[in-house]
Amino acid sequence: MPTDLPNLLTLSRIAAIPLLVGLVFLRTPVGDILACAVFSAAAITDYFDGKIARERGVLTAFGRMLDPIADKLLVGAALMLLAGMERLSPFGLLPAIVILLREILVSGLREYLAGIKIGLPVTRLAKWKTGFQMGSIGTIVAGDSGASAIGLGFLPVSWLGEAGLWVAAALTLLTGWDYMTAGMRHAAAEDMAREGAGERGRAG
Fold first, then answer.
1. What top-level branch of life does the organism fall under (predicted)?
2. How far is Cα 149 from Cα 181, in angstroms, rounded to an integer?
3. Domain with 27 in it: what CATH number?
4. What is the tens place of the pLDDT at every residue in 81-137?
5. Structural domain tally of the chain?
6. Contact partners, residue 160, CB within 8 Å, separation at least 6
């Protein structure tokens, strides 16, 4: 049910997006810190919604459908927001593009594989990718101004966030390749099965 706690946590990630946008648009140190807190809280729900669902045995079709959508909406909105507000340098914009393109690729693969009743499981490497991705985006959202607001202005926060984004992008390419090869393998098998069925039909 959509009202189960895991599903509510998933929905909260989507609900956090307009709040995140509004806080970043303030362009103030306090707004940046609050935006970082909102993004971080939303990112943490990605771990707890699945954990709670498994522990309580409330895995639902609604949750399986919505969970990856919520993740992609949150990440996509955050990256577009940072780029649009010029919070990403050219150094940080490149991995952001890689991450967004990978999300589109995997979404397309999942849609195709769902059509032939095959799932695309999340790998351990993909979980590491998500961790680096969420951590680096949250760091960039806080930025140097947010760090200064809490007495950490001596740290190159934006640079550290963009460096983490490069790590996430590298993991993104690796996991994207794994998913792509899996999709191509299933597509080739489906084509071979279809050709075999056609040949049997002609022989009959």
1. Bacteria
2. 46
3. 1.20.120.1760
4. 999 999 999 989 999 999 999 888 887 777 776 666 666 666 788 888 889 999 999
5. 1
6. 139
